UniProtKB/TrEMBL annotation:
Residues 5-320 form the FAD-binding domain. The lineage of its organism: Eukaryota, Fungi, Dikarya, Ascomycota, Pezizomycotina. InterPro entries: FAD-bd, FAD/NAD-bd_sf. This is FAD/NAD(P)-binding domain-containing protein. GO terms for molecular function: FAD binding; monooxygenase activity. Keywords: FAD, Flavoprotein, Monooxygenase, Oxidoreductase.
Amino acid sequence: MPPLTIAIIGAGPGGLLLARLLQRSSTPIAVAIFESDPSPTTRSQGGTLDLRPGGGLKAMREAGLWDEFCAHARWSGEALKVVDKKLVTWLSRSGGSQTEPREWGAAPEIDRRVLRDVLLGSVGEEVVRWGRKVASVEVEGEMGMGVVRFAEGGEEGGFDLVVGADGCWSRVRGAVSEVKPYYSGIGGFSFSISECERRAPEVLGDGSVNVSAWGLKGEAWMRESEYDVHDLEQAREGVKREYAGWAKELTNMLDAVDDDVAPRSLYMLPVDFSWEHKRGVTLLGDAAHVMTPFAGIGVNMAMQDAMELAHAIIDAAKEAEELAGKDVLDDKMRRYEKELFPRMHAAQEITDGATKDMYFTEGAPRTSIHRWCSRVAGHDMPPLLRPLFTAGLYTYFFFFKMFV
Ligand SMILES: Cc1cc2nc3c(=O)[nH]c(=O)nc-3n(C[C@H](O)[C@H](O)[C@H](O)COP(=O)(O)OP(=O)(O)OC[C@H]3O[C@@H](n4cnc5c(N)ncnc54)[C@H](O)[C@@H]3O)c2cc1C
C-alpha cells in the first residue's frame, strides 16, 4: 500500500499539531501543509494563548514537545482577576506553579508566536508550502480524492484527505457547508505595552503585555467610527472616552500602550453547526467551530481536534496496510466527526453562555458572576463535582453581594 496522503490547509496551531502527530506515526503517512501567509514571519501572530489539561497541554505531551512548551510557558499567566468599573474584585485566582500544571484548572500561557515556532520547528520547514492561499477544495472521482485549488491559480490533487485547519474564514468549509460565521455583536481592540521585561521579566514572554478592550458594537463599527481605528493614538483616545468613569488603575494602562493596535470584530459559527459527512474532506479547529475568545478554549479545542483526528488517520493507515484501503479512512472520518460534533457543541455553548453572561447581561459582573464562574470554571471539572461546585459558588456570591 502506498502511504495515505493528507493535505492540511492552514499552519495554525491545529494544522501544525496534526502534521506533527501524523509524522510521528510508525506507519508512514505523507503530509503537506498549504498556508496562505507568504512566510512564518510575515504576519504578527500577536497575543497569548492559555493551554488547558485536556486540550493544549495533553497535545503538547503527545506531540513530544512538553519540555519545549515548559521552557516557554508562563504558569503565572494562570492568574485571573475579574473586576468591575469601580475596581471591585469579583474573582481572583493566583498563578500556578512554575514547573508542573495543577491537576484541575491549569491554564499556563504561551505566546501565540512561540507556540507556532515550537510546532513549526517540530514538523520541519519543508512540510509547509508558504504563500499558497487556498480558494476551494473539491472531491473528485469514485474514490473521493481531494483536489486543492489555489487563489493565485493552479491546483494540486490526489489527496486521500484534505483537512480544513484554515480558521474562521475557512475555504475548505465551503466543500461541506454553505454556513458562514456571523458577527457576535462584540468588537474592540488589542493593544500592547512594550519593554515590560525591564519591570517584570518573570511574567513576560516576548517582553510585552497585552491589553484588550472589548465591547458591544454594531457590525460596521470600524467603518462608521469617527476616528481611524488603525491609528494607535486615535484608538487610545477613543477607548479612553468609551471607558470614562472607570477606575484609573484600569484606564491608566491605556496611557502605557505603545506598540501595535489591532482592531477586531469577533465572528462565530452557530452553536449547533455541523455538516453532512463528505468523503475525502474534513475540518478541525476554528474552521469547524470558531467562537468568541471569552471562555479561552478555542485553541484547546483545535489541538484536541488535531489529536483525535491524528488517532483516526493513524488507525486508518495501520488498518489499510492489511485491508482494502480507502474505505477504512472514510469510516474513521465519519467516527471522528460523530464524536467531534457533541464535543464542539458543548464548547460553543460554554463560550456563547460566557459571552452572554458578561457582555449581554445588564449589570454584569454583579448580576452574572455566579453563572459565569460555574460555566467557565466548571467545564473541565470532573462531572460529579460540578453540582457541588455550582451550589457553593451561588451561595458564596449570594453572601458576597451583601457586602459590595
Ligand atoms: C483575541 C483572541 C484571543 C484568544 N485567546 C485564546 C486563549 O487564551 N485560549 C484559547 O484556547 N483560544 C484563544 N483564542 C482562540 C484561538 O486563537 C483559536 O481558536 C485558534 O487559533 C484556532 O486555531 P486553528 O489552527 O484552528 O486556526 P488559526 O489559528 O486561525 O489558523 C488558521 C491558519 O490558516 C491559515 N489560512 C487561513 N485561510 C487560508 C487559506 N484560504 N489558505 C491557506 N491557509 C489559510 C491562516 O493564515 C492561519 O495560519 C483567542 C482568539 C482571539 C481572537
